Amino acid sequence: MPVPENKISTKLRIFNSALRLFAANGVENVSMRNVADSVGIKAASIYNHYESKEQIVEACYDFFLKYHDSGRLDKKQYLPVLQHGTREEVANVLNNLFPEDMTENLVYAMIVLFARIYNDAKAMDIYTRMIRHSMKFLEEYFDAGIKIGRFGEFNIRGVSLVFISARLFAAQSITVQPGVVPDWSAAQKEMFAELVKIIPFRY
Predict the structure, then answer these.
(1) pTM score, two decimals?
(2) What is the rounded distance in angstroms from the CA atom of residue 107 to the CA atom of residue 32?
(3) How far is CA 100 from CA 78, 86, 90, 109, 147, in A?
(4) What pLDDT, on a 0 to 100 scale, did the predictor assign at position 178?
(5) What pLDDT is stored for residue 3 in this prediction?
(6) Integer Cα distance of 10 and 16 in angstroms
(7) Where are the domains of the chain?
């Protein structure tokens, strides 16, 4: 259940408002005064919580890093799904859906991150690490599925690249149309339902 607005701390309200403004307008087009106005506080008051706009951007990055993979299962958790789960359950492991109560903020943070990967070294570093971690997870997951007999033999690296490319394309697309954010989870489920068809299931 969402926390009532009057129960949310001022710092969190600033973060939430800045995140949405950055995603909609680009970080460079949003001032600290714009953020303060959107929260309904005096411009000077915002500096009691954040020293600069870049500090809020850093908070966006930190939030994304902390929660992006929070829905991903580890090997001990996903092996039973590979062995006994339905195809839909196997696909859900691959989908790595964001936690339901954080989906909106995570997607906005992703928009901010992806929009800055070419002019911000930290954004590019996070982006690169995300791809590497995703690739490692997919390759290990597919390899485990083949070894236990859930999947037939296939080009693990090639299929992993297809999955990552599709996810990155979907993520990049919302940087130019942030209005689709509310439909993000549904779109991800539909996309992965199609992608999973390329995996040669044995049962």
Answers:
(1) 0.80
(2) 22
(3) 20, 22, 19, 15, 32
(4) 53
(5) 44
(6) 10
(7) 5-54, 61-198
Q: Hey, what's the torsion of the CAs at 179, 104, 111, 180, to 10 degrees?
A: -20
- Structure token pair of residue 19: 């995140």
Q: Which two tokens stand for residue 77?
A: 């958790």
Cβ(150)–Cβ(86) under 8 Å? Answer: no
Collect the ranges in the chain with pLDDT lower than 70. 1-8, 96-101, 174-185
User: What's the token pair of residue 136?
Assistant: 């490692």
**pLDDT, position 54:** 95
Nearest by Cα to 23 from 166, 175, 172: 175
Give the whole-angstrom CA distance, residue 155 versus residue 146. Answer: 11
Give the three-state DSSP class for 26.
coil
Tokens for 186?
């549904």
CB within 8 Å of 164: residues ≥ 6 apart: 131, 134, 135, 138
Q: Give the pLDDT score at 177.
A: 61
Q: Supply the pLDDT for residue 147.
A: 97
Helix/strand number for the chain, H first, E second:
9, 0
Task: Kindly state which CATH superfamily the domain 5-54 is placed in.
Answer: Homeodomain-like (1.10.10.60)
First to last CA, the chain: 38
DSSP per residue, 141-181 = HHHHHHHTTSB----HHHHHHHHHHHHHHHHHHTTS-GGGG
Tokens of 138: 């997919």
